[in-house]
Amino acid sequence: MRIGRWRWVGIALMVLSLTVAACAAPTPAAPATGVGEAPAAPPEGPAEVELTVWVQGNEVEHWRLDGPILAAEQVTDYKLKVTGIRDDAGWADYKKKFTLAAEAGEAPDIVLSGHEDVPVWANAGYIVEFTECKARYPEFDDVIESLWDSTMWQGKIWAVPQDTEARPMFFNKTKLQELGWSEEEIAALPDRIRTGDFTLDDLIATAKEAVEKGVVEPGYGYWHRPRKGGDFLQYYFSYGGRLYDPEQDKLVVVRDALEKWYAFQRRVVEEGITPANFIGTEWSIWHDTVSHGKALFWNGGIWQWADWAANYVKDLGGQEYLFSFVGYALQPSGVKGQPGGTLSHPLVYMITSEKASGKKNQDAACALLAKTTTPEINTLHAVGSTHLGILKSQANFPEYANDRLLSETLYMLDYNYYQPNHVMYGPYFDIVWDFMVKAENGEMSPSDAARGAVELLQTELGDVVIVE
Amino acid sequence: MSESASTAQALEVGKARYPEEKASLRSLLSPLLFMAPAIVLVVVFFFIPVVIVLVISLTDMSTATGFNNWKWVQFDNYLRIATHPNTLPVLRNTLMYVALTLALFNVGMALVIALLTTHIPRRSGFLFRALWLLPRLTPSVVYIMMWKYVAADAPYGILNQHLLGPLGIPPTNWLPAQPWIFVILTNGFIGASFGMVIFTSAIESIPRDYMVAALVDGCSLWQRIRYLILPLLRWPLLFVTTYQTLSLLTSFEQILLLTEGQFGTEVWSLWAYQRALSNYWGNFQWGFGAALAAVLVLIGVVMALVYMRYFQFNQLVQEPKIEAL
Lengths: 468, 325
Fold this sequence. Notes:
Chain A is α/β, with parallel strands linked by helices and 468 residues long. Chain A has helices spanning 2-23, 63-71, 91-103, 117-123, 131-136, 145-149, 173-178, 183-195, 200-212, 233-238, 255-270, 283-291, 303-311, 319-325, 354-357, 362-372, 375-385, 398-401, 404-409, 425-440, 446-461; strands at residues 48-56, 79-87, 110-114, 152-153, 156-157, 160-163, 169-172, 222-223, 244-245, 250-253, 297-299, 326-329, 342-343, 347-351, 416-417, 465-467. In chain A, helix 11 crosses helix 21 (446-461). The termini of chain A are far apart. Chain B is built from 16 helices and no strands. The longest helix of chain B has 54 residues, at 3-56. At the A-B interface, helix 1, helix 3, helix 4, helix 20 and helix 21 of A face helix 1 and helix 7 of B.
């Protein structure tokens, strides 16, 4: 009897120890062979270096991952084997995945993300400075100078741009014709917006007229993005807002511009050109509506063009169909005489630190990114996904220069602005977004929403934010 | 008495006591061994995480600081919560969400379904209960997407096209227009099945003699429910109410998928999640999010204690008197 009892005790302990063993932390990944021992100099032997790359992107953006895989064949310093993951989840989930992987020492060697992650991930030690890598390979000299600004934090370069884009105000040329606009007037619209002759007030008036005359259905005069995103900040900029003071390295909120931006979001609903309760509409419904020409004005991004052509209007002729009725211009200013603008959001490749990846592959990763940053490879992505190029040489690179959308929207980069590289920008954006939704949905008046946003920014961020 | 004699006597006493102590040790060890798996689970998956959350809540830890550059900030995060303009609205939302979902569906509807399906032919009852399990069986993302298409603006939404449109009600995107209705319906349709299964099983385990006796005494259906079934369901009711309250307090999956906390539907657990793990432009605020989660743990523990006292938990877990005789 006693033996039996102790046997049970033994079995219980064994089960317990097996459970504990199963719950134990996984063994860290073994360091990759090759460059780990002498990172400054390439290995003499043909030892293969395995590099992993994580990118975010949909199917038409597959070159974000396939670009580095293809570029590996061009690298001569190292024998590379590149694998990776193209993640089609939302940005928040993607960033969360990387952050947790980096803290666990299991991050990939190269990660692609928005430039605004540079300060956060650099501060946390997840990524390494890019300055030395940039100086090592001549390919990086071809990158458009202004794009390096988006990769800077504390005066240093931390990443290399992968793509950029413009966020145009798209307009329906056919509907404008039905409204009585001549072909010349329609052709002149982008330039009028560029010079500040056609403002947001004019946009509202035109859309309202289209609704009243039955050219478009009520609520289809102007469609903004249906979900959270930086696009809405363009109207904050349109009314003179700014986000960042580089001198003091502080975030900025301009009270007057904030209120005018919120008032614009509410006005488009009250004037009947945007549906009530519009925010939260499914993306598929939004894409389907705008790409089939049911809205008069809509703000989007040039990368959506490729998505519409491939996934929504392919049966109608794809890009040719879109060119037949869609026009594009900068986002109109809110102030007469002030030029229009557009928000660019360069995605950048970052090299992860040894702490984050558990590997010493930083030099091999640098060599790979050099061969990825070429007109041949970057143009595959730019043309395939309708993103603007990042290289000076692409303006004359035949495949790029012959692309009608890319060449006709290239001028927008002269009027673009970026979101700031500041560690607290994420919480800042969440607050201004939340109050914008309240203003647009009529939960709060625009002035109350602006007051609430400023109050919360001060509570949450303290002296990190300057109120003007 | 010499020293050696007293030592020998002590040894004798020790020998005599030894089997007694051993027996008492053994009697202590057995229940401990039986409880060991539960203790290990609670310690590893609840106690230690709560301690970690409490510790993190006293820091400024975020993505930007990583695990290396953070600082102790004492109770700053809790002070921020106390003075935060969103605290009261979010707390109000949370209480409304838990109370309405619990009362209307997780307990209320569950009880109604259990009572109805146990008073109709057995096969039909089984079929209806199986139907109510469907929302729980459907993957959350698919389930919420279906609801979004129910609510979508014309010409897409099922509500607008087939139900409200024919009645002449102007179309809109019903989800942002009436967000709480959808939040409670989506959660309630899933939550009701849990209580339904528990209550059904409890009703079916009531001895038939009681029912027969009630029928012989001439009880109506309502009297049987009021004076026989409901008193006997007290224990399952306590369990479902307590469990579902705590579950709803910490659940945000459907709200996240449905509204992302927009349109005034932010609840406490979602607030904690979004601060700690899901910021649109990155930089997760682990310290602040942990403080929010710690407050939630406190609320949950207090509510569990209140429920146990209200339902007289101690009496419910006493041994049945019939077996004690």
